[in-house]
Write a structure and sequence with these properties.
With 302 residues, this protein is an alpha/beta fold. The protein is built from nine helices and nine strands. Strands 1-2-3-5-4-6-7-8-9 form a nine-stranded mixed β-sheet, sandwiched between helices. A hairpin with a 5-residue loop joins strand 2 and strand 3. Helix 1 packs across helix 2 and helix 5 packs across helix 6. The longest helix is centred in the middle third of the chain and has 17 residues. The termini are far apart.
């Protein structure tokens, strides 16, 4: 049986502190639609665009109950793919403000099915500095700043939540963003890559990485070095925020043993949820995640 655990690079903290600082230094620049752009009972949903690193403009949506002022909020990070998450019961919660965005400049409600030829796992994967997930993490850091700046949100009660890619990146935010105070990571991705990538990889999108490694000299070694900086097990060792992690017993992508290793690596307050499910949304996530965020983003004056 394969045992998974942290394998943190020597300059890991330096790399991520510099990466986070670069994103934090980007001036806030956003614009809201000031109209209800998506029908969702109990919420107003505005589209919102904001500037990220290099002046790139990203699009998203902000959902809030009518009359909101200083409510807890969370950034809802999309799973792998170029499409946007739609506002629904998984990405909104009673008594919360939520913000989700598209990493690729597409519209707030963009629809697009994943195809291997349109994947991005291999983009820049030869080095940690050039891998696309560094830039995506920085986009997520800036998005938390944008959410924090909204009048509807209590700037001291912000969490991060997502599934798969979104779950993993929520842990990354918990590790490196001081704005994020609590995390819900459902079936988090990219764990145990030092063991997974040296075996036969059959499933896309992860197979994009091994396909890429075959095209460059010393490809496997280069890719393994890159992903060591992003492996969610390694990231979890730096995430001391209250973190709830879920796993699916029948999940072929974020395998249960790998997710347990991510959970075990978390040093702070934590809770593991187990679902008799595969790699997909599960209805119990709605209430379980609401309770976790409510308890861990509680106003100290309450």
């Amino acid at each position: 049986m394969i045992e998974y655990g942290p394998y943190v690079p020597e300059d890991f903290d330096e790399f991520w502190m510099e990466t986070a600082a670069e994103a934090t230094a980007v001036p806030l620049n956003f614009r809201r639609s000031l109209s209800n752009d998506f029908e969702l009972p109990g919420f107003t949903v505005e589209t919102l665009e904001f500037a990220s690193i290099g002046g790139r403009v990203l699009n998203g949506w902000l959902a809030y109950p009518e009359g909101s002022r200083r409510l807890p909020g969370f950034v809802w990070i999309p799973p792998y793919g170029r499409e946007s998450l739609l506002p629904d019961s998984y990405g909104t919660r009673e008594g919360f403000v939520s913000f989700s965005f598209n990493f690729f400049g597409n519209s707030a409600f963009h629809r697009e099915k994943y195809l291997p030829g349109q994947g991005y796992f291999a983009e820049g994967a030869a080095t940690p500095d050039s891998w696309i997930f560094r830039r995506m993490f920085q986009d997520a850091v800036i998005a938390t700043k944008v959410l924090q700046a909204q009048l509807e949100v209590d700037e001291n009660r912000i969490g991060a939540m997502g599934m798969s890619q979104g779950g993993g990146m929520s842990i990354w935010l918990g590790a490196w963003s001081p704005i994020v105070k609590a995390v819900c990571a459902d079936m988090p991705f990219l764990g145990g890559m030092n063991k997974t990538l040296v075996g036969k990889v059959y499933r896309y999108p992860l197979k994009e990485l091994t396909d890429f490694a075959e095209t460059i000299p010393v490809g496997e070694a280069q890719v393994l070095n890159t992903v060591s900086y992003f492996d969610t097990i390694n990231m979890a060792t730096r995430c001391a925020k209250p973190t709830q992690v879920s796993l699916g017993i029948n999940d072929p992508a974020a395998r249960p043993d790998v997710v347990r290793a991510i959970f075990d690596a978390l040093p702070g307050s934590k809770l593991q949820r187990t679902y008799d499910w595969g790699h997909d949304w599960y209805p119990d996530m709605i209430e379980n995640n609401r309770v976790w965020l409510s308890e861990n983003l509680r106003n100290k004056s309450e």
